[in-house]
Amino acid sequence: MDELIRIESISQYNTAMRLETLHPLVTVIDFSKAQQIQQMRRYMGLYTMFLKDVKCGDIKYGRNYYDYQEGTLVFIAPGQVIEVENSGEYIQPKGWALLFHPDLIHGTSLGQHIKEYTFFSYEVYEALHLSEQERQIVLDCLHKIDFELQHAIDKHSKTLIVTNIELLLNYCVRFYDRQFITRSNVNKDILIRFEKLLDHYFQSETPLLLGLPTVSYCADKLNLSANYLGDLIKKETGKSPQEHIQLKLIDVAKEKIFDTSRSVSEVAYELGFKYPQHFTRMFKKSTGYSPHEFRNLG
Questions:
Q1: Which residues are paired to 73 by β-bridges?
Q2: pTM
Q3: What is the pLDDT of residue 269?
Q4: Do 29 and 17 meet the contact criterion of CB atoms below 8 Å apart?
Q5: Which N-terminal stretch is annotated as signal sequence (predicted)?
Q6: Which of 176, 213, 219, 254 measures 20 to 30 Å from 198, CA to CA?
């Protein structure tokens, strides 16, 4: 196992890149000006965005190659580990990076809404692939942040820096929406696999072993991050994965309830509920009837 390097401050990262630290809580890096580095495993205590200048056609998603070649954006939230195999060779990285410490955004609008930028918890293979126009917009935002870092710190600095970071992230929300649309065929395939996964889950004895299916469980089986699966399904259907799971649960429950050889409690346990009263409450909220009332309708 390669050594794990912990990066918990801007100065630590800049020192590793042999670059000057202009602000203790945020940095913009042009990797063409950085020293050659060795690849290694890093624990990141910072919000990080990498703009990689690589040919994205070399990156595969399942059986499909990405079709955007102008640049790739990868987002990393504090607490994540960057897994890169250490070949022992020194390389010259290409592209740009924005890193900021959570302390930078405390007490700001961005700090209040940072959890809404769910792509910080996407997997690397769920990266954002930019058109040339989108790439230029990202670079323009980075240049504006860098301009403020080059400027002497004054009472306006934090507001302007954080505002430009928020603007950049809002553009990335738009670009991800575009990517979900342009990958509609891939998304529909994921939806079909998601439905089949739920069917198989409830047809097996898995609920007795694991309980109710979770979004994390489904995402793991589909080789996706939970946030990416959630955003994809919400954009495709207007419903969250949790809502889909509940709808599937109620459909299966309706079939099982009409089997009078089972008690309502047995049905609840078979579906993965620990407590039958929780099942009864959910069923009535969804259908307007208790399980016993629904059974009597038949």
A1: 51, 128
A2: 0.77
A3: 95
A4: yes
A5: none
A6: 176
